[in-house]
Amino acid sequence: MTWARRMFEAAAPFATGGVYVNFMPGDEAQRVSSGAYGVNFARLAKLKAKYDPANLFRVNQNIEPAH
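Above: the chain sequence. Below: its structure as tokens.
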């Protein structure tokens, strides 16, 4: 695991910053907003608050409803 994290850090300057949401380990959930949804994250959170305020659909990499 350590060598994989080191390789990831070494390759980071050459990466786009995007992520594939369905292939993210739980400890990288904080990267969902910037890497997967980018500038659309705030808009998606507002939509989530409107259509799913109870956060029923929260499996996988979740977008929390905006408050």
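The chain has a mean pLDDT of 82.
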